[in-house]
Write a structure and sequence with these properties.
globular; 7 helices; Znf_put; alpha+beta
Length: 218
């Protein structure tokens, strides 16, 4: 087995730090280190942006109106202005560059649709979290989420056996899910007192996209 390269170890460290920075619970030194690493690592920048969007979608209020057509039209209008300014320039552009403008428009539309999709999934998650009752696999009646519960989002491609291994190794009890965005509600064997330690280990586990504490009702 080959030892991990320094770059690989830095990326693993960055992935472990991302949830803490996004939750504003990282130390100043940890946040500064991650910022420096992201400046030179495109792969980690992409992962950080995906986690940021996912976290934002999970926190999106359920009454926020989503006007997909208006947003997409605004983006395409901005591209039209850019095309008009470029066409007015005295230097002729090669036909390949003109063709690339249409590719760019298509890519912008695709990214916008993906972002809207994440937002809609966030709305569904928010609505489910607002429900007064949760269901376990073995019960049909609703129960109140106990203190110390967590939302865990595994990778979409994670195998059931791997997910079960994570649950068993951390002594977790699955009390709900998966919901519309693939989030499970779990509880550690040690209850609320063990939550911070379990969250730290979940965030460092390969195949876990996000692990967050469930907000407790006041």
């Amino acid at each position: 087995m080959n030892s991990p390269t320094p770059a690989g170890r830095d990326c693993a460290r960055a992935w472990e730090a991302m949830p803490w920075v996004l939750q504003h619970s990282a130390s100043a030194a940890q946040a500064e280190w991650l910022e420096g690493h992201l400046a030179g690592c495109a792969s980690c920048r992409n992962e950080y942006e995906q986690q940021r969007l996912l976290q934002k979608a999970m926190q999106l209020p359920s009454d926020v109106p989503v006007d997909v057509n208006a947003g997409l039209k605004h983006l395409l209008d901005r591209l039209d202005v850019h095309d008009a300014e470029a066409a007015a320039a005295p230097v002729a552009r090669p036909s390949r560059l003109r063709g690339n403008q249409w590719i760019l428009r298509g890519l912008v539309a695709a990214v916008f649709v993906q972002a809207v999709g994440i937002g809609i999934l966030g709305l569904k998650l928010r609505q489910q979290d607002a429900s007064p009752a949760y269901h376990t696999y073995s019960q049909t009646t609703g129960v109140t989420v106990p203190p110390g519960a967590m939302h865990v989002v595994p990778d979409a491609g994670m195998k059931v056996a791997d997910w079960n291994a994570v649950v068993n190794s951390l002594h977790l009890q699955v009390i709900g899910g998966p919901n519309a965005v693939g989030a499970y509600t779990v509880l550690a064997a040690g209850g609320a007192s063990a939550r911070e330690n379990v969250l730290r280990r979940l965030r460092a586990t390969h195949g876990i996209r996000m692990a967050e504490p469930v907000s407790e009702a006041p």
